[in-house]
Automatic annotation (TrEMBL):
This is Fe-S cluster assembly factor HCF101, chloroplastic. Residues 437-497 form the Gamma-butyrobetaine hydroxylase-like N-terminal domain. InterPro entries: FSCA_dom_sf, GBBH-like_N, GBBH-like_N_sf, MIP18-like, Mrp-like_CS, Mrp/NBP35_ATP-bd, NUBPL-like, P-loop_NTPase. GO terms for biological process: iron-sulfur cluster assembly. One of its GO terms (molecular function) is metal ion binding. It comes from Arabis nemorensis. One of its GO terms (cellular component) is chloroplast stroma. Gene3D superfamilies: 3.30.2020.30, Fe-S cluster assembly (FSCA), P-loop containing nucleotide triphosphate hydrolases. Belongs to the Mrp/NBP35 ATP-binding proteins family.
Length: 523
């Protein structure tokens, strides 16, 4: 609590004003509260001076403005973001708030984190409604905009990937289940929702992208100065595939393929993208591991078919993503059924998709029927969601796109706030993604538990850093996410510690401490 003291004219005692700061995302609101006795005394004393009376009038005007702003922000705080579970004011979405109480006019801008936000229309409607019911408001003007979230790991990535907000892998670990069809249609669905999207075809042995899309330029170009790859485009989506390299399909050994994929992915000038969709090659070998290590995957979408054989291979892929701490957010069961003679037929049986969902706890399942048009669109070079955006298949992909947008937003929020430093408690606060448990760690304990070669002898296992080498009052200078599995903690001595979530969960915890930091910070 900050205490400001003002000596009123002809007054021997100071008037006490309690000034409390409240943070509303990007908007800072100051509330000024006067005790009644002090308010009356200030009014009487100020009447003796014209200059002071002018100041009191100005102060009164500011107080009215602050009260009006408080009314608007309080009304807007009723709108809850379904992805973050927090009101839009606390999320920092409210920008450029302007109020003219005399005319009863309010204007503001809601800045979302993605142009593909599936609830942006709802936000706009609700904002108009909740502000309009304020008694003194006569006119409301709400504008919508999007400022995509900056990549969480930007400083640790190759330049080509540093401006991509979310990277989504579409995987099946088995060929022939329609993975490329799902990847391409998902990408163009996201683009249709207003996002900036790219597709990376990671299958060097059998690239599908050149068949499924029909760009005007079918050859990747090289920037001679930067030595970077310029992607080709089709209907506003950036495309990179080995099939556009002018060499057809590759005949090479695994290590060479990993190098080619690394080069294609990291040296491409992707620019600013909201989503990069990676069409993963089948399998769980070196190529897949290289992709997962080079690109910080935000999430994965699993594609399968109803057969038991498909489930066996898909299960391997889900386990691979689990070990690499990449969340699987949806399962797409392709070629589920077809309708004929008024009946629904299941030529490949039932249950593979639901079995994946139940066994691995993946939250969303989407069914795709057998449709000649879906297959034909893949051969014609125009995705189904583009050629027939009102079809049942397009609606399913629309639902999948909404799911991906929402889940990526949740994951980004969880990762960015998973490990933070609480300056008030002087403790590291940990809440591992996909866990409801939150706990506190002593910074010195975390530093002493470093298991890198600088702290522990790799050959003997002997501890190099002794207990007394770490100051008890040490505080981290910076904590940054490292993928979905760890954080990088920078300490005052310049040491950068990689702390996996799994390790943090095993460290001795602090107990008997307040669950939350106080709202009021002493300054």
């Amino acid at each position: 609590m900050k205490i400001l003291q003002f000596l009123a004219p002809n007054s021997a005692k100071p008037t006490i004003i309690n000034q409390k700061q409240q943070s509303y995302g990007a908007i800072s609101q100051t509330q000024i509260v006067l005790h009644r006795s002090n308010r009356q005394r200030l009014s009487i004393n100020c009447s003796n001076s014209g200059n002071t009376n002018h100041k009191a009038s100005t102060s009164s005007g500011e107080s009215v403005a602050k009260t009006s702003e408080k009314d608007v922000l309080k009304a807007l705080s009723q709108i809850i973001d379904p992805d973050f579970g927090t009101d839009i004011v606390s999320c920092g979405f409210v920008k450029d708030l302007r109020i003219d109480k005399a005319l009863g006019e309010v204007s503001l801008r809601l800045e979302l984190t993605t142009p593909a936000c599936p609830v942006k229309d709802m936000f706009e409607q609700k904002a108009n409604e909740v502000v309009a019911v304020i008694p003194w408001v006569k006119k409301v003007n709400v504008k919508m905009s999007a400022q995509p979230a900056k990549p969480i790991f930007a400083g640790q990535l190759p330049p080509g990937l540093s401006r991509i907000s979310s990277i989504v892998a579409v995987s099946s670990c088995k060929g022939g289940v329609g993975k490329s069809t799902v990847a391409v249609n998902l990408a163009y669905t996201l683009a249709g929702m207003g996002a900036r999207v790219g597709i990376f075809d990671a299958d060097v042995y059998g690239p599908s992208l050149p068949t499924m899309v029909n760009p005007e330029s079918r050859i990747l170009e090289m920037n001679p100065e930067k030595k970077t790859i310029i992607p080709t485009e089709y209907l506003g989506v950036k495309l990179v595939s080995f099939g556009f390299a002018g060499q057809g399909r590759a005949i090479m050994r695994g290590p060479m393929v990993s190098g080619v994929i690394n080069q294609l992915l990291t040296t491409t000038e992707w620019g600013e993208l909201d989503y990069l969709v990676i069409d993963m090659p089948p399998g769980t070998g070196d190529i897949q591991l290289t992709l997962c290590q080079v690109a910080p995957l935000t999430a994965a979408v699993i594609v399968t078919t109803p057969q038991k054989l498909a489930f066996i291979d898909v299960a391997k892929g889900v386990r691979m993503f689990s070990k690499l701490k990449v969340p699987c957010v949806a399962v797409v069961e392709n070629m589920c059924h077809f309708d004929a003679d008024g009946k629904r037929y299941y030529p490949f049986g039932k249950g593979s998709g639901s079995q994946v969902v139940q066994q691995f706890g993946i939250p969303h399942l989407f069914d795709l029927p057998i449709r000649p048009t879906l297959s034909a669109s893949g051969d014609s070079g125009t995705p189904e969601v583009v050629s027939d955006p009102l079809s049942d298949v397009a609606r399913t992909f629309q639902d999948l796109g909404v799911c991906v947008v929402q889940q990526c937003a949740k994951i980004r929020q969880q990762v960015s706030t998973a490990v933070t430093y609480d300056k008030y408690l002087k403790a590291i606060r940990v809440k591992v993604p996909n866990s409801d448990e939150e706990f506190l760690l002593h910074p010195a304990t975390v530093r002493r538990n470093d298991r890198s070669a600088q702290s522990v002898d790799e050959w003997t296992g002997e501890q190099k850093v002794q207990f007394g080498d770490v100051a008890e009052d040490i505080e981290p200078e910076e904590i940054r996410p490292m993928g979905n599995y760890a954080v990088s903690i920078t300490w005052p001595d310049g040491f950068s510690q990689i702390a996996p979530y799994d390790q943090l969960e095993t460290i001795e915890r602090l107990v008997d401490v307040p669950p939350l930091s106080p709202v009021e910070v002493y300054t």
